[in-house]
Amino acid sequence: MDLNRELAAATWTKSTRSGSNGGECIEVAKLSGGRHAVRDSKNTTSPALIFTALAWTTFINGIRTGDFDW
């Protein structure tokens, strides 16, 4: 499937950390081949970031182990 069509047909999930006050927020969608897309929920027509399956798994594992904690 063409990536643009796949993104248009994707089911986007808003971050559970997003507030109801309209603050910064992202949405994530699962794509074919284990890839994931991330976009700005306030500007859904802006380009999405596409992560390979390996990059996504590495990112999620980094979150879980605190690699991105400030």
A few lines on this structure:
The protein is α+β, with helices and mostly antiparallel strands. Helices cover 27% and strands 21% of the residues.
Outline the fold blueprint:
Blueprint: H1 3-9, E1 13-14, E2 26-30, E3 36-40, E4 49-51, H2 53-64
Q: What do you see in this structure?
A:
There is one protein chain. This protein has helices at about 5-10, 55-65; strands at about 15, 25-30, 35-40, 50. By secondary structure, the chain is α+β, with helices and mostly antiparallel strands. It has one domain. It has a 4-stranded antiparallel beta sheet. A hairpin with an 8-residue loop joins strand 3 and strand 4 (about 50). The longest helix is centred in the C-terminal third of the chain and has 12 residues, at about 55-65. It is flat. The model has no long low-confidence stretch (mean pLDDT about 90).
- The H-and-E topology, N to C, reads as HEEEEH
> Count the helices. How many?
2
Mean pLDDT comes to 89
Structural class: alpha+beta
Largest beta-sheet characterization: 4 strands, antiparallel
Number of strands: 4
Count of separate structural domains = 1
- Uncertain runs: none
What Rg, in angstroms, do the CA atoms define?
13 Å
Helicity range: 25-40%
Approximate strand percentage: 15-25%
Distance between the termini: 39 Å
